[in-house]
Every structure is written in C-alpha cells, then in structure tokens.
C-alpha cells in the first residue's frame, strides 16, 4: 500500500487538488476536527459502505495514528480499490481542520 506524509497531504490541499479522503476514526474522534473535505466512514463500517466508493478513484485513508487507516486500506485494496495511507494520521497532521 502506498503512503504519504502529512506534509505531502497539506501541499495537495493547498494546491486545491481534488482529493478523496476517508477518515475511519470513531464519531467522538471526528468531533475534534477532520481534514477539510474528508468523508467519515468509521473503520467498522468500511466493508458495508465500500459499495459507495468508486474503484476508478484513489482514496487517502486517515485515522488517529495510521494503524486503523492501514487496516481499512488493506481491506479496500483487497476489494480492488486504490488507496494511500496517511503516515502518522491525525496525530501528525497540523493543517486546517473542519468541524461537522
């Protein structure tokens, strides 16, 4: 599985790239803020909600520290999706946040 650093992600966000970010943290965690434009799909819901995703797109997976997002990414890769795991997750991310 490919990975990217939070600095690389912030550069893409600053360049207004069209990104597909999936935040797999739990509800109480995303209340503390999400990366702008991210979609919230808790880790446990990934298998049942994978049908909502487009296999022609690349998805950047995010969690608190990078482990759950790697697990979600491995599952999605096994289903034919293109994924990138954000190294260090939200603990390493110091960019802009949005609150839902």
Automatic annotation (TrEMBL):
<dbReference type="InterPro" id="IPR036873">
    <property type="entry name" value="Rhodanese-like_dom_sf"/>
</dbReference>
<dbReference type="Pfam" id="PF00581">
    <property type="entry name" value="Rhodanese"/>
</dbReference>
<feature type="domain" description="Rhodanese">
    <location>
        <begin position="15"/>
        <end position="99"/>
    </location>
</feature>
<dbReference type="InterPro" id="IPR001763">
    <property type="entry name" value="Rhodanese-like_dom"/>
</dbReference>
<dbReference type="InterPro" id="IPR050229">
    <property type="entry name" value="GlpE_sulfurtransferase"/>
</dbReference>
<protein>
    <submittedName>
        <fullName>Rhodanese-like domain-containing protein</fullName>
    </submittedName>
</protein>
């Amino acid at each position: 599985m490919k990975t990217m650093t939070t600095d690389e992600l912030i550069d893409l966000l600053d360049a207004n790239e069209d990104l597909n970010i999936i935040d797999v943290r739990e509800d109480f965690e995303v209340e503390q803020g999400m990366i702008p434009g991210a979609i919230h799909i808790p880790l446990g819901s990934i298998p049942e909600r994978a049908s909502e995703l487009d296999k022609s797109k690349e998805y950047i997976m995010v969690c608190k520290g990078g482990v759950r997002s790697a697990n979600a990414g491995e599952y999605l890769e096994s289903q034919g999706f293109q994924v990138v795991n954000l190294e260090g997750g939200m603990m390493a991310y110091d960019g802009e946040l949005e609150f839902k």
